[in-house]
Amino acid sequence: xxxxxxxxxxxxxxxxxxxxxxxxxxxxxxxxxxxxxxxxxxxxxxxxxxxxxxxxxxxxxxxxxxxxxxxxxxxxxxxxxxxxxxxxxxxxxxxxxxxxxxxxxxxxxxx
Length: 111
What we know:
The protein is an alpha/beta fold. It is 26% helix and 15% strand. The chain has one domain. The chain starts with a strand and ends with a strand.
């Protein structure tokens, strides 16, 4: 799940990066948090599940707008560029191999 508010300058990089992830099966959900720039139009060019909300400012406030149950795991990000190609494998490996309730990361490339 990627949350974006007026992210037109970076959302394309983020979604292109997510397309390249080395992971067998995942879904990208984008929450457009009331953007007033071209973010919604850019998001519409991609095969993602889109949730549009009024501006709620924080991921914690956006999550109640998403009422459908998520599958096994849910990862959310406010990434501003694109993830490392192995991002999902790394996080899934941590969850599978450990006894964790949640996993954080700092492996985004900002170029």
